[in-house]
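Encoded backbone
================
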Amino acid sequence: MRYIRLTAMLLLAACGDGGTTPTSPPTPPTPVATSITLSATSLSFSSLGATQQLTATVKDQNGATMSGASVTWATSSASAATVSSTGLVTAVADGTTTITATSGSASGTAAVTVAQAAASIVLSDTVLSFASLGDSIQLTAVVKDLKSEEITGASVTWATSSTSVATVSSGLVTSVADGTATITVTSGSASASASVSVQQLANSITLSSDSLGLGPAGDTATVTATVKDEVGSIVSDPSVTWATSDASVATVSSIGLVLAVANGTATITATSGSVSQTATVTVDPTYTSISAGLFHSCGVRRSGDGYCWGYNANGRLGDGTTIQRTKPVLVSGGYEWTSISAGGHSCGLTTAGDAYCWGDNESGQLGDGTTTGRTKPVRVSGGHTWASVSSGTEYTCGLTTAGDAYCWGKNSDGVLGIGSRENRSIPTLVADGHTWVSINSGTRHTCGATTQGDGYCWGWNAYGQLGDGYLDASTYVDTIPNLKVKDLGNIASISPGGIHSCALTTGSEGYCWGNNMSGQVGNGSFAAGRYRGYCPYYTWCTDYGPVTRELIKGLHTWASMISGDTHTCAVKATGELYCWGLNSNGRLGIGNTTLRRSIPTLVAAGHTWASVSAGGSHTCGVTTAGGAYCWGSSQAGQLGNSSLNNSGVPAKVIWN
């Protein structure tokens, strides 16, 4: 009972008086942002300018979402990405940044990565055309992302579908051969291509010869055309059209075969595409002169054109090159020649009386006042009008129309006849005041005939080749023409050879003297080479041959005579040709391998000859029909028959 009353009292105390007003409930606490959750915590961009929207959910201390809560956005690197006040993130450049959303003291972050990815590639050109091989075109590639923004420094790979047509390196496309190819550039998963077409076009034509000399009707020569494109690459299998300006003189086939029809001049034209080149064809079977040198030969055609062939060191062929030729090539300059003399170099006389020389000039033998070698004719100094010019081994002599003799070049043996042994690079008057009708250069001595019919030789005399009856095997030289050829008058001309000499008299008799070890004196014997005692005036000496003139065996009537290095040749008044002396390499032209002959021996082949020229180890001649022939050594192509093989009989010079 006690417990019931206590409980009632307590209830009354708690409720108060029934007439009292009740108390209001307490005010709830203010929400405070305590956390922010972003819609994404990491963003990746592959294109510049691309955007992504971030949203932020703000919650209070009770975990309730605070709608409309104020949020501030920021980026740690605006150079990589920016963020707007509404959370819109925009990619700016490759890199990383952190986007931070802040509300009150709460914040949330998102990591942003910007790495452009190739979506497309734009080439500087998509169609390439080449008209030349070896030509190049530079392609450039611009790599872009999905927003078409350029990707700076993007890595690209280049490839070609056919390296046999075109190659590519770092975008540089180079044409290789005719055809088509595709150039592909790749960056990541993006690629682009350019089509390549290579079709060579003719830009120039070079003919194998720009001047042809053909013999009688029916003679042929083949002209080849080398077609090149703009960069100088040869066009393989080009289409070439051939034409002649005068089919009555020469015709030309579709492959460049030129056929002589009749005497005259025609122009052959080769055309490929829009370019063409021409060659002049002269049909004329007549050649007026020929000269055999040491290792080359030269000749003049009736047209006045000069040709040389064989060894071409220092440009002695006069074609502007130093290329050895086995067939005649035209001497440069367009001069009209009356004769060309081949020695160790070449000299020629024009119809105007001017002398020109070309080839080696180490000792001034070209006569132009220098020691500079020439591959084309250079005019001899002095302003003289020349009647003849003669090339020796390393010097030259010439005769003016006034009968004065001049020499120039190497003079160590006194061959210039000027009273000293000093070289001269310009024509220098031969001493002693003679008036000359002929003068000729040899290897180491010179000979001439005067208007009085006297003969003089000067220079080296170790073998009695001066013909004055004196001999000295070691030191004797005569530097001026002051001693006559002994016991011989009425001399029309004297030809100095290597170490012997031969003369032709006005009565058509032939005489020789000097070294006769190979029978080149033509007296029917060979020198024994034995000591023969005391030589007049000088020293003990060896019998190498006669030191004064000896009549050539056979009582022939000679029209012309020429001394070579170790052999001699002469044309009879009847047109028969004879040679004698050393026959190695077949230089005598007698059709057999007899080593030497001491009497005149008829040259084989049965031609009627107009002239002959004896060189170092070969011989050349012109027939009365105008045919040119050479025989003997052809080690440098000096026979002019397109061969390097020696010939023991006259071989026709192939002029093309």
In short: Helices lie at 2-15. Residues 391 and 555 are 31 Å apart (CA to CA). The radius of gyration is 51 Å. The longest strand covers residues 95-103.
